[in-house]
């Protein structure tokens, strides 16, 4: 999967902080019921060149209150 060097750096930085990385295509992951009790940080959002809709998002997720 092609990602910019900035996105790769963000992924490694958040992994060190104890986050789990989720790669998908949901731009509103932080507003869903499943992830309500988690700290969700969007690291990257990629839109299609043809139609402008989201084709990939990269999220860093960690349960709220968890420290590392």
3D structure, described in words:
This protein is α+β, with helices and mostly antiparallel strands. The chain has one domain (5-63). Helices cover 18% and strands 37% of the residues. The chain has 1 helix and 3 strands, in the order αβββ. It has one helix spanning 5-16, and strands at 20-24, 38-47, 54-63. Strands 1-3-2 form a 3-stranded antiparallel beta sheet, with helices on one face. The termini are far apart.
Summarize the structure.
The protein has one domain.
Furnish the topology, listing elements before pairings.
Blueprint: H1 5-16, E1 20-24, E2 38-47, E3 54-63
Antiparallel strand pairs: 1-3, 2-3
Q: Roughly how much helix do the residues carry, as a percent range?
A: 10-25%
The structure class reads alpha+beta
Strand order of the largest sheet: 1-3-2
Q: Main beta sheet, described?
A: 3 strands, antiparallel
The total of beta strands comes to 3
Mean pLDDT: 92
Residue runs with pLDDT of under 50 for 5 or more positions: none
Number of helices, counting only DSSP H or I runs of 4 residues or more? 1
| Rg calc | 13 Å
Percentage of residues in strands: 35-45%
Count of the separate structural domains: 1
N/C terminus separation? 28 Å
